[in-house]
Amino acid sequence: LSPIPTSSGMFINSVLCIVTPPVARFHLDAFIGLRVLQGLSQAVIFPAYHALLGKWAPAKNLALMAGIAYPGTSAGVILVFTAGSELDAHGFGSSSDVNYSGDDWPSIFYVFGSASLLVTLLWAFFVHESPSVHPRISRAERTMIETAIAATPAEELQAFSILDVFPPVAFLPARIRKRTAVPWRSIFLSVPVWVMTIAQSAGDFGNYTLLTCVPTFIYEVVGMNIFDSGTYAALPYICQWAISIPLGLVVNSSVWQRSISFIATRKITTVTSQVGCAVFLIAAAYSKTGMFALAMVIVATSFQALFTYGSVINHVDLSPRFAGILFAYTNFFGSIAGIVGPYIADALTPHKTRAEWRMVFFITAGVYLFGALSYGLFASAERQPWAEGEIFDDHDATEEDDREAVVSVIHTIETKSTG
Question: Do the strands 180-181 and 390-391 form a parallel or antiparallel pair, or are they unpaired?
Answer without folding.
Answer: antiparallel
